[in-house]
Amino acid sequence: MTTPSALSDLLCRHDTDGDHCAAVALNVEIAQNDVEQPVHRHRKGQLVLALHGSVTCEVPQALWMVPPQHAVWIPGGMPHSNRATDNARICFLFIEPDAARMPQQCCTLAISPLVRELIQHLAAQPARSAARVTELLLELLVEAPVQQLHLPMSNHPKIRRMARALGKDPSDRTPLAEWAARLAMSERTLARLVAQETGLSFGRWRQQLHLLVALRQLSEGATVQQVAGNLGYDSVTAFITMFKKALGQPPGRYFSRLT
């Protein structure tokens, strides 16, 4: 099991940036709740794969959610921090620059069972003895579908203030007009600021935050009823409708597909 300091120590011991193999994989198990790796960066690109539980990665201007059987791709050189849920199992895959045509921007990828097995196989043996596995893995990974599982963020202090408040209490249904009053600005100005900084309307931005919180809580074992209540929905049906509209399937079917 890995603690926050042990996680950093693990990466230092392996010196993944000093290894010039095309891809290097590491398995990590988290014993504690809310384990966070401080802001850091790698020369290599990093794929963070959630095998159990979930991981939230924060990068400049966005939060990226990694539910089970998905991965977040972080290009080389990008500062980021990782926070894992209780008893999460994670696999890190570090990819040498130019070894594969990976996205230039941070994104969440849907990971097929075959790709997942190849990553774990690579983690179990020295990368230099798995050249064929690495070649096949990178070829398949380039084709992995991109999922829209992120929350656009901003360094603007008023956007950050709302995000912190909603993160602490996602059931908060304070309307935009009241938020504007709290932040000493007009409703129209705040609406324009949110759209300018995040690319979304306030309502759509808060719904996306709800979706990420829901994915995290469901992956931790909470029931649909509990999550709907935690997010302040008037009914379970309303929550399921939101979830299905965003991800194409109701929560039960979505998570059963990932196992």
Automatic annotation (TrEMBL):
One Gene Ontology molecular-function label: DNA-binding transcription factor activity
Residue ranges constituting the HTH araC/xylS-type domain according to the UniProt record: 160-257
Statement: the UniProt record of this protein carries the keyword Repressor: yes
Taxon lineage: Bacteria, Pseudomonadati, Pseudomonadota, Betaproteobacteria, Burkholderiales
Keyword Transcription tagged: yes
Organism: Comamonas antarctica
PANTHER family: HTH-TYPE TRANSCRIPTIONAL REGULATOR NIMR
InterPro entries the UniProt entry points to: AraC-bd (IPR003313), Homeodomain-like_sf (IPR009057), HTH_AraC (IPR018060), RmlC-like_jellyroll (IPR014710), RmlC_Cupin_sf (IPR011051)
Protein name, as recorded: Helix-turn-helix transcriptional regulator
Keyword vocabulary terms for this entry: DNA-binding, Repressor, Transcription, Transcription regulation
